[in-house]
Amino acid sequence: MSFDRLITKIREMKNPTVVGLDPKLAYVPSYIQKTYMDVDGESLKAASRAIFRFNQEIIDAICDIVPAIKPQAAYYEMYGHHGIKTLERTIRYAKLKGMFVITDGKRNDIGATMEAYTAAHLGTTMVGENECTPFGADALTVNGYLGSDGINPLLRTCKEHDKGIFVLVKTSNPSSGELQDRLIDGVPVYAIMGDMCEAWGREQIGQYGYSSVGAVVGATYPEQLRELRARLPHTMFLVPGYGAQGGGAAGVAGAFDANGLGAIVNSSRAIMCAYQKEGCDEHEFAQAARREAIRMREDLTSYIDIK
Q1: Domains detected in the chain
Q2: 106 carries an active-site annotation
Q3: How many Cβ atoms sit within 10 Å of the Cβ of residue 63?
Q4: Less crowded by CB within 10 Å, the N or C end of the chain?
Q5: 172 close to 147: Cβ distance less than 8 angstroms
Q6: Which tens digit of pLDDT belongs to each residue from 286-307?
Q7: Which of 95, 106, 170, 277 does the annotation list as catalytic?
Q8: What is the distance between the terminal CA atoms of the chain, rounded to a whole angstrom?
Q9: Distance CA 286, CA 178 (A)
């Protein structure tokens, strides 16, 4: 089971965190930008090559202490086909370093279109008689609000290719409650979506008791985190909103079970841009990212006992 592999890495490293690699060019040190712009000018190609080197050095700095990365597809798509290539290279490089990779794509469609998204991000594509792997991530974030028609193609691939999904349930953004907190027969929409995650994953339960269907539940809503942890005993949580969006370690602790498992907490900008916050030499950006990743780990594990 895909999330068994993730949880095993979390236990080994005593670290329930994932680093979001969502790089804007402004996050990349100027000396790296210059290296590629001197060759390719101020182009999408130069930007994409600079971002890959930035990602590569951060991965090198954290791969022995952080179990997973989470690249957000939009930050690569904005650089066109060069950016898409950087996303693919980033995924493959992280996996070579032994990291679990969650692509944050929030894909949502039905039928053949959802099957195509699934093949692209989690599965394989046939080219003649050759079975090719387009991106090869271990898990993908998805939007479940089209119902089972948009999830069933993913479930087949999760089973066949040992993959996982994280379905948007209670997101970290301030306006999430406009829809997700509305009541249907007295039950919030986010709780109904959580119940659907439990149902979708019931035939794919792993050794730690969690299915291949996880849920995205924001750190900015600690009450709902605790509520959903109790309500969804077989659903792994991906928890965005820690740090930059205001979610704290004390509140995030409610996402974990009695064994300190069942969730992984994301930090993106705080780790990528740690060198800017520290005010250290930009050549030390990767070391600063490592220091911030360690600080985050220590912060979380002061509230969570991973067994």
Answers
A1: 2-301 (3.20.20.70)
A2: yes
A3: 18
A4: C
A5: no
A6: 999 999 999 999 999 999 999 9
A7: 106
A8: 19
A9: 39
